[in-house]
Design goal:
With 668 residues, this protein is α+β, with helices and mostly antiparallel strands. A hairpin with a 2-residue loop joins strand 8 (129-130) and strand 9. It starts with a helix and ends in a 12-residue tail after the last strand.
């Protein structure tokens, strides 16, 4: 073989190797599509929908849509990227879309209908059955879920410091059936079911959710740089810092911090503590009821460490057998011992504690449970029950641990060094937007439903700026104008207040209410369908229905009530305050024995529970303890009693008539 032929052969081999290395076939390469463009997907009806993907640079491809047999042509750019818009008709299907650049690829069983993104934290993420528990009547709902024209795709829980374009999903588009619905987002499913049963239009849900996450994580860096509280973090991520480096720095800081904190509580390197042992005398310790939050009772305004001890009598038949300690949720972090041996350690206020205790630790008669609770702000203690110890082999055999616990106050938070922040979690500015939103912004949608806010409650005042910013940011990134954005106002949760108090959750609900000033938004109140002991209330059917009511009224032309009464104005008349409301057409009504949930104050800002009565479409509020009233609050608490409704059986939204600074002002 001549030199010339050898050179030609060598060049061809190099080019072939390069093409194979990049994953592109050297001839007639099949078009590569993103993970959200697959069989069984739903495309938005009556729209110019985006199709996009990868192909050989500079090579034309033909796209054919079966609903009109129209052919479109696209050519990949120098990076191999291509994108076109195709026209969709009114709802229908199934259809196919074919892609051909010399090798054919066809997507099948495509429906055209309405596409909604569902997003937020755990109350949107919660499945019909399994994740965070079951919804009401879960098994009946699953058995009846035969809706092949409702379809869903789930974005993987992923973080990234830079915006991603490739979607990660282990759950590609699939139809709703008794075999698949259990792992659907419950709120999204019931929203889609309500719309489908009314309109019989296919519904597609893009589920991008992650429990316990904050709104700033779901907002783009571009938008967050306009907020001084988040701009430095965004710029830091944009600098190119690696996760590996952050993890190493954190591990070192955490080890030093943990040693320092544990030394104050006499916890040794093996995790044992003298005060957790059965032989330790706690007779001089004070008593506190559990479950219960200490800032509501024994320790107002205390943040820091409190040690709890409870003596429990174990039946003789349980000796030597595995048992399960259930503590409900704890605010915020706990380390738990049984007879002096550490059996569990959990961080996070909303996490249900359930620790299995091996039988070799279990003895007949008196046993000792010891818990160190570390509250990092807000309420502290046992957030909700029941708290029990039961046989692992038979959960019905249990001992109730509710009642008096011995406690000893440890270090105040102000006396402790600040804990290092985890560098690998999702609750950092822009990381979820980058990984779980940016990859889907090309997908043409109808709108968004959103359920989030619990994790931002400690910064509720800031949320009144952050949440509208996030909405406008998503609309800008999608480039579809002011598409519908409907959200759920936080449900009632935690212990009820004996007297009117300030509340972070009430302030967060107020921030959500204020967000209705953003065009084309809607809010479904859940103030009457929560659970004092469960941050994941099980009546997701009603949440989905109320969201669907908003869509029916605002997007599908139905004359249907979609909002409960919303405070409009107050008029002071002597020793009473007269309140008027919007969304009270047809009249107001009371559910229950009496109109309750109102508090009233004078200029001294001291609130008292109020007497309230209906007069037509107005509420008249007064109290014998307030002769010159200045302000009224309704439903102002973590778990308020609220009995004001409109005739459509939708609850009045919690509100206040004052503008006095709340407890979250200035918190960032």
């Amino acid at each position: 073989m001549g030199i010339k032929n050898l050179l030609i052969k060598s060049v061809k081999q190099v080019l072939l190797s390069a093409l194979l290395f990049t994953g592109i076939k050297p001839a007639e390469a099949k078009v590569a599509l993103p993970a959200c463009l697959t069989d069984d997907m739903v495309l938005q009806q009556k729209a110019q929908v985006n199709l996009w993907g990868k192909a050989t640079a500079g090579k034309p491809l033909t796209i054919t849509t079966s609903w009109n047999n129209k052919k479109y042509t696209a050519t990949a750019d120098a990076k191999g990227d291509w994108k076109i818009k195709v026209a969709t008709p009114s709802f229908g299907g199934p259809y196919t879309i074919s892609f051909n650049d010399g090798e054919a690829l066809t997507l099948k069983n495509i429906l055209i209908g309405e596409v909604w993104v569902c997003s937020g934290q755990s109350n949107m993420e919660m499945w019909v059955s399994g994740m965070y528990g079951d919804v009401l009547n879960a098994q009946q709902e699953i058995a009846a879920a035969n809706y092949p024209e409702i379809r869903m795709i789930k974005v993987d829980n992923t973080i990234s410091m830079q915006p991603l374009t490739e979607l990660k999903t282990k759950w590609s588009w699939r139809a709703c059936s008794p075999q698949t619905v259990a792992q659907f987002s419950a709120v999204a499913y019931f929203f889609a079911k309500n719309l489908y049963e009314d309109k019989h239009v296919p519904i597609g849900i893009i589920n991008t959710t992650w429990g316990g996450t904050v709104a700033e994580a779901w907002t783009s860096g571009e938008a967050l740089k306009t907020m001084p509280a988040y701009a430095p973090a965004v710029k830091y991520f944009e600098s190119g810092i690696t996760q590996e480096k952050l993890n190493k720095e954190y591990d070192s800081k955490l080890a030093a911090w943990t040693s320092e904190i544990n030394a104050k509580d006499q916890i040794d390197a093996q995790g044992s503590a003298p005060w957790a042992k059965s032989t330790f005398d706690v007779s001089a310790w004070k008593k506190m009821p559990a479950p219960g939050l200490w800032e509501k009772g024994s320790l107002p305004n205390f943040d820091g460490i409190v040690k709890f001890v409870k003596k429990v009598t174990i039946p003789a038949a349980w000796a030597g057998k595995d048992v399960v300690l259930s503590l409900g949720s704890i605010d915020d972090n706990d380390i738990t011992w049984f007879n002096g041996t550490q059996i569990g350690h959990t961080d996070g206020v909303f996490v249900q504690r359930k620790y299995t205790i091996p039988g070799n630790l279990v003895k007949a008669g008196e046993n000792t449970i010891a818990i160190r609770v570390f509250d990092t702000g807000g309420d502290g203690g046992f957030n909700g029950g029941p708290i029990t110890i039961s046989l692992a082999s038979n959960a019905d055999e249990k001992v109730d641990l509710a009642g008096e616990w011995s406690y000893l106050v440890g270090s105040k938070l102000s006396e402790l060094p600040a804990a290092p922040q985890r560098p690998d979690g999702p609750n950092r500015p822009t990381l979820l937007y980058n990984a779980m939103v940016n990859p889907i912004i090309n997908y043409t949608i109808k709108g968004v439903i959103w359920y989030q806010g619990e994790s931002n409650a400690n910064k509720a005042d800031q949320y009144s700026t952050l949440f509208p910013l996030m909405i406008s940011d998503w609309r800008k990134q999608w480039g579809q104008g002011n598409f519908p954005f409907y959200f759920v106002q936080l449900a009632n949760f935690m212990a009820q207040d004996a007297q009117p108090v300030e509340s972070e959750w009430a302030e967060l609900r107020e921030a959500q209410l204020k967000t209705l000033s953003v065009p084309n938004t809607g809010m479904a109140s859940a103030i009457d369908i929560g659970d004092a002991y469960n941050i994941h209330p099980t009546n997701k059917q009603e949440v989905g229905r109320r969201l669907a009511l908003i869509a029916k009224a605002k997007n599908y032309g139905e004359k249907v009530a979609y909002s409960g009464p919303i405070y409009k104005a107050q008029t002071v008349k002597g020793n009473t305050i007269e309140l008027t409301f919007t969304y009270a057409d047809g009249g107001l009504k009371v559910k229950g024995d009496k109109l309750s949930g109102f508090a009233i104050a004078g200029a001294d800002k001291k609130f008292y529970w109020a007497d309230a009565k209906l007069e037509g479409n107005k509420v008249i509020v007064s109290s014998a303890q307030v002769s010159n009233p200045a302000a009224v609050r309704y439903g102002w608490g973590n778990n308020p009693t609220c009995t004001l409704y409109n005739v459509a059986d939708l609850p009045a939204t919690p509100f206040r008539t004052d503008t006095w600074p709340g407890i979250t002002v200035g918190k960032e």
